[in-house]
């Protein structure tokens, strides 16, 4: 925290120098977002929303989408290996299960995986991103449904327009990191196109944290008329990465932070998708959109050092999402209505093979999940300055489980065949009001309900005979959300925001390390939990050369009943803050420096709060870039003070010592990169 203060003092001193160079007003731009599945001015959003603009991305040190998210108020990023292949984003303090409570969309397409693996952030190359919208709170559950428990992250990718443009980018950095990207975009009469291809690789900070990715994406759109538009989006992502495992304290003492417990464990993945859709604009009679989507994700995981079974997983996802939007006046009052249906079908197949023999099939798992949700939401302008929003969603899920065990040699095997189904259903509502009392200044109040269905592999457990069973009594999670906030524009140089939130959660899904018949662990439902806090932020442009930003979040996530009553939920820091400075220097130079602070938190599996807390950390990043027409050259330093820290850590069984101890996933030390981007 002291270093964060030092950075702040330095920023103020430098800013004062810049302030002397000029006092002209600098207009802060008006931002349009899509929290309601249609475009809306940020000031009319009845929830806490942060928008990461193209300028924010270009001026950051970010090489991945999760790097951009670190400085957003209320958002915690946990990158297990430091290369983005395994990472989780936490909003409102959900700790270990955070990734399952945040819905991630790419151009409105769901990318959350149907199992416990969460979101594969490496499938979203940053060079494809135009902007990122982060909607905090459960207000998105009405329009987006499952997984939108604590927030929605909508990633808007680039699209083509105007004359043909070619963009080339190459990046080199520490740990043999290198990237090459190529994109082509533009439009021809009624046809718009955007094509991108790239590759990246790194050896990683730790041993066996290598990562190699190849990506291709396209966005094609044809306007047949002012009433009909057809689009086709597609993408392919191939990856291979190491899985070094966590380090217990004796590993750190004996071998250091870069050691890998599992030197040869690794995974290979392929991820392909396409979206075909149409938009029909009937003018005064509204518009009708429908998207057909398909995604296939294959992942092969090899545990050659840890000696676990080889996993070969395949997930096929089919989606149909029609929606109708009507923007019309009612008695001279503006009104926007949206209604639609989201239909998804997931086919999950997971086969396990002996780690020593790829032909020795141990067991087969086949699970089918079908979800169908219908929603309606209306935005009514009571007056020019007062807008009211209300909506409702009903969603039904159907799980069909199939399991067969071929293992006849190990103790407890073969497990009994599983052939069962379960049909949970949930509803959500959203109600809110926003009052604009001045230009770009407003207050809002939101009350709603959100939910999360269990992931398909959260149902499994071992019975008293050490045989795999299904816990179909596992309940869906629900939450009543309260949010009140203020967005205020002081003048053309300064604006800020402040919001308070509270989530009363019933049946929060979590992994109970002491659960199950033998106390060896099982997924379970908490009795009651509460997630509450304060989020604040500011943006300041002192003049045409100096810009500031900063934010602070206080979060308290705790148990409200049961054996852990009043204890804090593990891995949730009470304090989180960011501060940044941007200087626009002569000769087309831009200097950026930022610091992110995350406070102390309890280790994963320490629901009893019996252990000491994991230390907080502050990480500072800086860069300098030079721009000339379409050329951008950037040099950056990450972790400027070479802080030794871990974003994720827990308490568990150490098989090498047969004892329980704390374990860590060390994050990278100081590292460097250079980037060259050319557009013509």
What would your notes on this structure say?
The protein is mainly beta. It has a single domain, classed as Maltoporin, Chain A (Beta Barrel). Helix content is 6%, strand content 57%. The chain is built from five helices and 39 strands. The protein has a 22-stranded antiparallel beta barrel. A hairpin with a 7-residue loop joins strand 4 (75-79) and strand 5. The longest helix is centred in the N-terminal third of the chain and has 18 residues, at 2-19. The protein is globular. The two termini are 44 Å apart. 43% of the residues are buried. The model is unreliable at 1-30 (pLDDT under 50).
Q: What structural class is derived from the secondary structure elements? A: mainly beta
Q: Number of DSSP helices?
A: 5
- The tally of strands reads 39
Gap between N and C termini: 44 Å
CATH superfamily: TonB-dependent receptor, beta-barrel domain
Poorly predicted ranges = 1-30
Which fold does the CATH topology refer to?
Answer: Maltoporin, Chain A
Rough outline: globular
Mean pLDDT: 90
CATH class membership = Mainly Beta
Q: Which radius of gyration do the C-alpha atoms yield?
A: 25 Å
How many independent structural domains? 1
Proportion in β-strands: over 45%
Question: Helix share of residues?
Answer: under 10%
Question: Biggest sheet, in brief?
Answer: 22 strands, antiparallel, barrel
